[in-house]
Design brief:
This protein is α/β, with parallel strands linked by helices. Helix content is about 35%, strand content about 25%.
Length: about 325
């Protein structure tokens, strides 16, 4: 069976400092490699929730590419459109955590396999049963080839009456804000589900008022806007109004991937037609569980694990 949820964009390995307060411009200890990349984390999170999920990406013919391919397939993600590109290396992100929770990145991406994918090599028929296409802004900012791939994926999704889920995932290391706003605009315009953080929503709309940012992003369309607030929870805007839901109290081990797990769980609830309050609680729980394990994908929860946390919080 062909996938119903397709994630397009970078697959990479993540190599991280083993404790906060170790900047990347100094010698120190790293741990990893971990399978990562926002679109890949989303794909694993969606697969763990039981959705029929596929990935369109590029990996190198190296050990890191083997790690990614093996991990995605073990998680049940269809990898038939993940291109193994000869003569390229797999994307890498080096990450350090500051004591205040901020992250520092050094990327090897643009000239990696993730940035050199061939959009013409993707089979049109792969999108025959697509219900949702998920795109991260980092994939749009990565390279001209990756942007072309995302545009083609969106055209094929629309051709098959699928919907678009879009996370801006602003990365100034890849693209300045002004350029990103212009690049992202056509995808924001067509999105059925928008998934920014509050800070991203304000930055993209150029306002300091959250309600005004929400109004501009909704743009009078029948769409859903889910604003992520980290540990504080989320707010969902739709034509039926605004829903605020608090987060869950958990012990944070590694915040990487929490937003991608939130995205997958939010899409799961929206696809099921749940009320927005239920969607927000479910997605908040998924994001909370994601931070309780070391590694970008390790904390991605199943439906049963989310339900346990929801029951505990009643």
């Amino acid at each position: 069976m062909k996938p119903q949820v397709i994630s397009v964009g970078e697959s990479l390995v993540e190599i991280m400092r083993d404790s906060p307060g170790q900047p990347l411009d100094q010698a120190g200890v790293f741990q990893g490699p971990f399978a990562s990349g926002a679109p890949a984390i989303f794909a694993v999170a969606a697969a763990r929730l039981g959705m029929r999920t596929g990935m369109v990406s590029g990996i190198g013919e190296d050990a890191f590419g083997t790690l990614l391919d093996r991990r995605l397939q073990q998680e049940g993600v269809d990898c038939s459109q993940v291109q193994r590109l000869p003569g390229t290396t797999t994307g890498i992100a080096f990450i350090a955590y500051q004591r205040g929770g901020e992250r520092e990145f050094v990327f090897h991406l643009r000239q990696s396999a993730a940035g050199l994918v061939d959009e013409s090599a993707v089979a049109d028929s792969y999108f025959d049963e697509v219900k949702w296409l998920h795109i991260s802004g980092s994939a749009l900012a990565l390279s001209p080839q990756s942007l072309a791939l995302c545009r083609r994926a969106l055209a094929l999704t629309r051709k098959n009456q699928g919907r678009l889920s879009f996370d801006p995932n602003l990365r100034p290391e890849l693209m300045p804000l002004a350029e990103a706003k212009e690049c992202f605009a056509p995808f924001i315009e067509q999105a059925d589900l928008l998934l920014p953080t509050v800070e991203e929503a304000l930055a993209i709309t150029g306002t300091e008022d959250e309600e005004e940012a929400a109004r501009r992003l909704l743009a009078g369309k029948d769409r859903i806007l889910a604003l992520k607030r980290g540990g504080a929870g989320s707010t969902i805007y739709s034509r039926s109004g605004r829903v605020d839901q608090p987060g869950f109290s958990v012990v944070e081990v590694d915040p990487t991937g929490a937003g991608d797990c939130f995205n997958a769980a939010c899409l799961y609830g929206v696809d099921a037609g749940w009320p927005m309050t239920q969607v927000a609680r479910f997605a908040n729980a998924a994001g909370a569980l994601a931070v309780t394990r070391q590694g970008p994908m390790e904390g991605a929860p199943t439906v049963a694990q989310i339900e346990v946390l929801l029951q505990k919080s009643v």
